[in-house]
Each structure stands twice: as C-alpha cells, then as structure tokens.
Design brief:
The complex is a heterodimer of chains A (226) and B (350).
Chain A: H1 3-36, H2 42-54, H3 57-68, H4 73-82, H5 90-114, H6 118-126, H7 131-142, H8 144-159, H9 163-168, H10 179-188, H11 192-222
Helix pairs in contact in A: 1-5, 1-8, 2-5, 5-8, 8-11, 10-11
Chain B: E1 2-6, E2 15-19, E3 22-27, H1 34-42, E4 52-55, E5 58-59, E6 70-73, H2 85-89, H3 102-112, H4 128-141, E7 146-150, H5 158-175, E8 178-183, H6 186-192, E9 195-199, E10 205-210, H7 211-216, H8 221-224, E11 229-240, E12 245-250, E13 253-258, E14 267-273, E15 277-280, E16 291-301, E17 307-314, E18 317-324, H9 325-331, E19 338-343, E20 347-348
Classes of the chains: A mainly alpha (226), B alpha+beta (350).
Chain lengths: 226, 350
C-alpha cells in the first residue's frame, strides 16, 4: 500500500462525506416539500432531480466544466467571491457530486415521506403541531430508515462516481484525484498491482454498503415501519 | 358556542350549524360528507369563500387547525407509529399549554380503561379497540373545549363503548366542552348524543334537535329506516327480587328491563325500536310480554306499502310503533284513541 493510495482514499471519503451532508441538509426539506406538494411544478422538479439517472455522466460533466470555467457566470462569480478558480478544484467536485448523487438521496426520501398518511399529519395538526413541527417531530423520525439508507446510498454513489469527475476534476493528487480516477490512471499506466488495490477497496466497499442498506430495510420492514 | 355558516359549493350544500356544550351527533349515511364537515370545523379543510365559523365568540375562519386548540379523534386512531403509547398520548405537551397534570392523566387513563402495562408498548402491538382508546386519551390530554370524534368508538364492543362514553361524559361536565361526533349507528347516537344533526345523503342538515325529539318524529330519515325507534328518559327505580331484572319508572308507569348495575334513582336512557312495539286496544292479560304501557295515539304516518308508523303519547314522552296496514285497519285506530303498547324489548342506553 502506498501513500498516494491513502491520500486518494481520504480525499474520496471527504468528497462523499461533504456531498452526503449537503444533500441531506438541502434534500430532506426539499423532499418533504415535494412529497406534500400537488403543484404543477412538482413533475418538473422531480424530473430535474432525476436527470442524472438517465444523462450520460460525460454530458453532465461537460456542462459543469463549461459552467465552472473562469469566464462563465458561475465560475466568474466564484472567482470574485473566493479569489480562486472553481474548475479543477475540490469544491467543484462537491458541487458536481451533489447534483450527480441527488436522485439517490432525494428520491427515496420523497417516497418515504409520501408513505406518511395525510390523516396522521392531520392528527398532528389537531394536537397543535404546525407544518414545520410536523416535519421535525413526525416526518423525520418516521422516515428514519429512509434517511439512513438515503445517506448511505448517496455516500456510496459519490464514492463510485467516475464520468463527471473525469470531466471536471483534472486528476490532481490531493485535490481532485479520487479512487475511481486513480484506478483508471493506474490501468492506463499498466500499473496493475496498484490498480488491483484501488479496485479491491472499491469492490469491498460497495458490497458492504449494499448489504448494510438491504439489511436495514429488511429490519425496518419486520418492524412494520418501512 | 360553535357557530358555522358554510356556503354551498358544487359538491357540498350550504350548512348552518349551532352547537352547544354537550354531545352533538352528526348522524347520516356513509358518503354524506360528515367527515368533510368535521374536518372543516377542525380547520383541516378550507371552508368555501363567504363561510363563517366561530367558537366561543372567536372567529376561526383564518385560524389554522393547529391554533384552534381542539381535540380530534380519527376513525382509525391515526396514532404515531414511531412513538410508544404514552408518548402518543402526551404528544401535545410541546405544543399546547393546557395539558393535563400527571394525576389528571392517570385518572383519565383509568376512566378510559387504558392499562398501565400498555403505556410502554408500541402502537403496532395494540388491537383496534385499544388504539381507539389511546387516540381518545391523546385528544383529551391537552384539555380542549371542542372535541371532534369521527367514528371514534367504532372498534369497541358495547361494554367498552359504555366505559369510554362515561369517561367522555365526565370530561364534558368538567370542561363544559362541546363534543361533536360522527356516527351512522343509531344505537350509538341514541346512547351518546344530547343533540342530533341529521345529515341527508346530499350532505345537507335535514333536522337538528335534541335526541328525544329527533328519534320520536315521524317526518325524518330515521323514522323511514330500519333504525326507527323512540328514545325515552326513565329513572332507575329498583330491582325485581328473584329475577335478573330491574324496574324503571316512566312517569307513573313502570318498565321492566334486564338487570341494571347503577344506583337507584338515576336517569336511564332507553331506546325502544318501533318494530318491537305492538298495539292492543284493550289491556292484554296473561301475556309473556312484561311491558305494557298505556298510551294515546298522537299521530299516524302511512309509512310504506306494508306498514304504518304510529306515534304514541306516553307520560309526556313518545313511543313509535310500526304495525302492518292490515292490523291498523282491523283495529280501526285513530288519533286521540287510548291504546296499550306491548313492548317486546328495551335497549338500555346507559
């Protein structure tokens, strides 16, 4: 095992952690809003969130690359605010990952929130609970299982992301070089022994995560709360 | 105390409702919009424009449900699955400032028949009837002055229903509360209600009066249906020694009924189904039927092709009798005639 491997692994975990945290923070209230909404904009919002599921990652990566360029609006604004370039930075990877992993976090949360019956929420309202309190004291605890599996899936999906990072990351060790990119690079260099390490870690990680998510859901179903 | 004036919409007719402290039943067929109306009172559904609603002189049109300080019990309990029984019951403590003290809660739980062993149990382990009791306790916990019950005791058997009812009567008296409940079971209404708003199949209120008047009239949908039967006020007089029977007094006359457990000289509400009453023009002797009441014919309604509904005046109250056209013709009954009503069965309403 080499130092670059640890550096890459640490960066990957940081990226996945930041992405998951941001997605939970922004995605949960958004999912709650969408689950309860019957407005005309709802299908549009849902389609936007689900877009990364069907879009080739390179397409998303391409548009982000263009958007993050210093002469673009977002890239220029970022440069003005933080005095550093957005493209090829860790921050750019976080923003891209948030977009790319959003459906894996938000969609299960919407489904879970939709399973809460309107009657249950009415009962809470009749007990003096306003809509914000209904979110905090009912929706969140009732969607506990979904929150955990959404977080795990969001994290795992970010770890496994390749195409978008390849387009906008630039493969800078310690800054934007994540596991999947490092693996690709090692293979390009015909460095199979090292590639084996990267691939093995990613494979084991994915297996563990999926087993964890499915056991969690099985346990929740057994308790009748899925 | 509660005043509602609802304007008509395409799907629901206009309604005017004035509800006093006590038990008011919204009684009508399924699908008549009773739940819809109850949810509008609760503030869970918007009222059509131009409608007004007020409670204890406070206008409520623009007050959301959570600020109305009501209690509502839904048909299926709607308990929160992630909380245990006690946390469900005490859910309102964070949001309301008039919640019960520990002692008050204990006596309420006792009155509702909620056992201490349930309190730490999960909701999933409760039966339908247990859930309904817990849901009622949860609604009472914040001591609302307006309690809305949507078929809240439908999963309880008769004995449990009576227990819950007594707890609610106690609560109503202590808080001078308005309790509005939905039911489509005549026995339940006859047992619980002080007033009845009769809702027709279109959702309009076809009659609104006290329980005795509503059940004793010939011109409403109750008299037309299978549930026709009078509700009467009696007093518990004593027991029949040697038999499992009690006596009730109805004015100067006496009614024998299955043994009562309560104290003597208390009010007992009874219901006598119209199909259980037959009419004799002379006092029957040597009959197996114990209850024979002297009455005068108050009014007669040609009920349908086969039956006639006769309203009898007994000791300042009324009794309904459903008899065949053939019997009616053979006995040549007429208004003002003195007759004897044979009562086959008496239902005690508690």
């Amino acid at each position: 095992m080499t130092d670059p491997l640890w550096q890459t692994l640490w960066l990957t975990l940081q990226l996945a952690g930041a992405t998951t945290a941001i997605l939970l923070l922004l995605g949960t209230p958004l999912a709650w809003r969408l689950a309860r909404s019957r407005g005309r904009l709802k299908p549009l919002a849902e389609a936007l969130i689900a877009m990364p599921l069907v879009l080739p990652p390179s397409v998303l990566g391409y548009y982000l690359l263009v958007g993050f360029a210093p002469d673009s609006m977002i890239g220029g604004l970022w440069q003005g605010l933080f005095n550093q370039q957005l493209a090829f930075s860790f921050e750019a990877l976080v923003i891209a990952s948030v977009i790319y992993s959003a459906p894996f976090v938000i969609q299960p949360l919407i489904n879970s929130f939709q399973n809460i019956s309107p009657e249950t929420l009415k009962a809470a309202a009749s007990l003096g609970c306003n809509s914000w309190q209904r979110f905090v004291f009912l929706a969140l605890p009732m969607a506990k299982t979904a929150l955990v599996s959404a977080a795990v899936m969001g994290f795992a999906h970010t770890v496994g992301e390749f195409g978008v990072v390849l387009m906008i990351g630039g493969n800078i060790p310690g800054e934007t070089q994540v596991m999947s990119i490092a693996l690709y690079q090692e293979v390009e260099l015909l460095n199979y022994a090292s590639a084996n390490h990267y691939a093995g870690i990613l494979l084991s990680f994915s297996a563990i995560v999926l087993v964890a998510v499915y056991s969690l859901q099985a346990r929740a179903r057994a308790r009748g709360m899925a | 105390m509660l005043h509602l004036q609802r304007t008509a919409t395409a799907s629901h007719p206009a309604i005017e409702l004035h509800i006093n402290p006590g038990f008011t039943a919204l009684f009508g067929p399924s699908g008549a919009g009773k739940t819809h109306l109850l949810e509008q009172i609760a503030g869970l559904r918007p009222l059509p424009t131009g409608s007004t609603i007020s409670f204890a002189d406070n206008p409520w049109q623009h007050i959301p449900c959570e600020q109305r300080h009501i209690g509502m019990v839904f048909q299926h309990g709607e308990l929160f699955p992630h909380l245990n029984v006690l946390d469900n019951i005490c859910f309102a403590w964070r949001f309301r400032d008039k919640c019960m003290s520990k002692q008050q809660l204990q006596s309420t739980l006792h009155a509702l028949g909620i056992q201490e062993t349930w309190l730490n149990a999960s909701i999933q382990s409760l039966s339908g009837g247990q859930r309904q009791r817990v849901a009622i306790a949860r609604a009472l916990y914040s001591q609302p002055q307006l309690l809305l019950l949507d078929e809240a005791v439908s999963a309880l058997d008769a004995a449990a229903r009576l227990q819950v009812y007594r707890a609610l009567v106690e609560y109503q008296k202590r808080h001078q509360a308005c309790i509005v409940f939905i039911s489509h079971i005549a026995d339940e209404v006859a047992q619980f209600a002080d007033d009845v708003a009769l809702i027709d199949s279109n959702g309009a209120i076809s009659a609104h009066a006290n329980i005795f008047e509503i059940f004793n009239r010939l011109d409403n949908s109750i008299a037309d249906g299978q549930d026709a039967g009078a509700v009467l006020r009696t007093r518990h007089q004593g027991s029949v020694v040697g038999y499992q029977l009690s006596t009730l007094c109805l004015g100067k006359q006496q009614i024998i009924c299955p043994a009562l457990t309560g104290h003597f000289d208390t009010n007992v509400r009874i219901r006598i189904a119209a199909r259980d009453v037959s009419i004799c023009v002379e006092k029957p002797t040597q009959s197996s039927i114990l209850n024979v009441l002297q009455a005068t014919i108050d009014s007669i309604d040609p009920h349908n092709d086969s039956h006639v509904m006769v309203r009898l005046h007994v000791e300042e109250q009324f009794l309904l009798a459903r008899i065949t056209h053939k019997s009616f013709d053979e006995l040549t009954l007429h208004v003002g005639q003195t007759v004897f009503a044979q009562v086959k069965s008496v239902a005690l309403m508690g």
